[in-house]
């Protein structure tokens, strides 16, 4: 198998029946770009930018961030690099923004909420990403969008940042694409509205599962309740892809589900267009995608969406994975 995995590194993600499924990588710092290249990922589907901010006294300035984003974008050109704006809070520790103790950090002051309340800090990041977009295929993704207003506010601030760069005479891609993470159930329910203001969606299954099943993703005592194949999760994914399809918005999955070989046929069958996973699993995911028939994946998903038990669905997925291996 090792040999076979090496063979797919230079080949595109495409199913046996010819449906293109780009496989991208999730990264946490600019240094990860070498691993992205080595694993054969077709771009970065999730650049988690938190690591630029944690364990230090001051947030990184525009220049430092610009250099980090630019390094990745130029190295991977012409592949896309989706930079996710700051997703601090929740499990990601803030050292310079010392927060008040929160009763429910995952329901608290995190990600886009924190950024919209700290517009100066947020603008620094947006300008840095914009500047990198002049040198590569850079896109912007907002985390933890719960409704249309947050998306509009973020995009308004982005327009202000574009104006500032224009005034400074600094180049950027005027048509930079922006997208929303779909990781809160309310975002799924208003996905039609979000789709009108987004070029793409990326489903963050880690948080989507946590929030829709009310299961803390870090709590081992209830880990058995954290079920990616829960019928509710499949329905939420399906609702997202259906709305997106009608609106012409592309959907990727960048949560851990996209890195689980067993779940790949199910995700593709549910209408997901792209996958983004950690570099070490990218070759395996691509290898698998190249052995899947989209027609069979759709049959699997149509069957699964009617089931009542997460275990039944998971067992069927495992059975198919054994046959495909
Ligand atoms: C997710 O929630 O699935 C996701 C990709 O974001 P993070 O794991 O960084 O919260
Ligand atoms: Mg998340």
Automatic annotation (TrEMBL):
Interval of the full protein contained in this chain: 250 to 574 of 585
A cellular-component GO term for this protein: cytoplasm
GO MF annotation, one: kinase activity
Active site: 254
The reaction(s) this protein catalyses: L-histidyl-[protein] + phosphoenolpyruvate = N(pros)-phospho-L-histidyl-[protein] + pyruvate
Binding of phosphoenolpyruvate, residues: 48, 84, 206-207, 217
UniProt cofactor(s): Mg(2+)
Enzyme Commission code: 2.7.3.9
Name of the molecule in the record: Phosphoenolpyruvate-protein phosphotransferase
Binding of Mg(2+), residues: 183, 207
GO BP: any one term: phosphoenolpyruvate-dependent sugar phosphotransferase system
Job description of the protein: General (non sugar-specific) component of the phosphoenolpyruvate-dependent sugar phosphotransferase system (sugar PTS). This major carbohydrate active-transport system catalyzes the phosphorylation of incoming sugar substrates concomitantly with their translocation across the cell membrane. Enzyme I transfers the phosphoryl group from phosphoenolpyruvate (PEP) to the phosphoryl carrier protein (HPr).
Protein keywords: Cytoplasm, Kinase, Magnesium, Metal-binding, Phosphotransferase system, Pyruvate, Sugar transport, Transferase, Transport
Coiled coil spans: none
Compartment(s) where it occurs, according to its Swiss-Prot or TrEMBL record: Cytoplasm
Family, as annotated: Belongs to the PEP-utilizing enzyme family.
Location of the PEP-utilising enzyme C-terminal domain: 4-293
Superkingdom per UniProt: Bacteria
């Amino acid at each position: 198998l090792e040999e076979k995995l090496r063979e797919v590194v230079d080949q595109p993600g495409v199913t046996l029946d010819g449906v293109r499924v780009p496989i991208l990588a999730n990264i946490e710092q600019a240094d990860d770009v070498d691993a992205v290249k080595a694993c054969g990922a077709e771009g970065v589907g999730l650049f988690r930018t938190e690591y630029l901010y944690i364990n230090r006294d001051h947030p990184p300035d525009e220049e430092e961030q610009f250099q980090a984003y630019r390094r990745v974008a130029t190295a991977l050109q012409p592949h896309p690099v989706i930079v996710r704006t700051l997703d601090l809070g929740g499990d990601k520790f803030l050292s310079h923004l010392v927060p008040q103790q929160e009763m429910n950090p995952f329901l608290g002051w995190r990600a886009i909420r924190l950024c919209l309340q700290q517009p100066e800090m947020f603008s620094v990041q947006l300008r840095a990403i914009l500047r990198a977009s002049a040198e590569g295929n850079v896109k912007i993704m907002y985390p933890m969008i719960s409704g249309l207003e947050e998306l509009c506010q973020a995009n308004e601030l982005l327009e202000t940042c574009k104006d500032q760069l224009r005034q400074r005479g600094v180049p950027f891609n005027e048509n930079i694409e922006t997208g929303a993470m779909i990781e809160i159930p309310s975002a799924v329910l208003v996905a039609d509205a979000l789709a009108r203001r987004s070029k793409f969606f990326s489903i963050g299954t880690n948080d989507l599962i946590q929030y829709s099943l009310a299961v803390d993703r870090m709590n081992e005592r209830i880990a058995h309740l954290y079920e990616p194949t829960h019928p509710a999760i499949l329905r939420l994914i399906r609702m997202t892809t259906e709305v997106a399809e009608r609106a012409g918005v592309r959907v990727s999955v960048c949560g851990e589900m996209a890195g689980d070989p067993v779940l790949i046929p199910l995700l593709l069958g549910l209408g997901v267009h792209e996958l983004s996973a950690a570099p070490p699993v990218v070759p395996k995911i691509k290898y698998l995608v190249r052995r899947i028939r989209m027609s069979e994946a759709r049959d699997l998903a149509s069957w699964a969406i009617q089931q009542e038990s997460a275990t039944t669905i998971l067992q069927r997925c495992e059975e198919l994975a054994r046959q495909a291996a």
